[in-house]
Amino acid sequence: MRFRVTTHTAVKPPGDALDLLEARIPPRREDIVFSRAGCEIQAFVDRDDAIRMTHDERVELGREAVLGVLGDVCECAPELRFDWFAVSPAA
User: Fold this and answer.
1) DSSP readout, 20-38?
2) Mean pLDDT across the stretch 35-61?
3) Which terminus of the chain is less hemmed in, N or C, by CB atoms within 10 Å?
4) H/E element holding 46?
5) At CA 54, angle to CA 51 and CA 56, rounded to 5?
6) Cβ–Cβ < 8 Å for 41, 21
């Protein structure tokens, strides 16, 4: 599953928020691969979730996993704030 990490529209993060995040986020963490693509950071979640789950349930689990990594990164980096970022499924 692919996700987009962008700056949150409800919050006014600094213009370099994604650059700061990109500098701190690992290229790979467990089953998530991160890469920069223009004005977003892409996250590819390679999980083998239970087949009985609905697509929406799998998407939400993947989104929560990406948010978890962002939370960990922001917690360790005083220049970042977790609420600057939004995670959504990529089209």
Assistant:
1) HHHHHS-SEETTEEEEEET
2) 87
3) C
4) none
5) 135
6) yes
pLDDT tens-place string over residues 61-73: 999 999 999 999 9
Contact 27, 34 (CB under 8 A): yes
Distance in angstroms (rounded) separating the CA atoms of residues 46 and 55: 14
Domain ranges of the chain: 2-89
- Please answer whether residues 66 and 32 qualify as being in contact, where contact means their C-beta atoms are separated by less than 8 angstroms: yes
The number of angstroms, rounded, from the C-alpha of 28 to the middle of its chain's C-alpha atoms is 12
In whole angstroms, what is the distance from residue 25 CA to residue 77 CA? 10
Rg (CA), the chain: 13
- pLDDT score at 50: 64
* Global confidence as pTM: 0.90
Question: Do the beta carbons of residue 69 and residue 32 sit within 8 Å?
Answer: yes
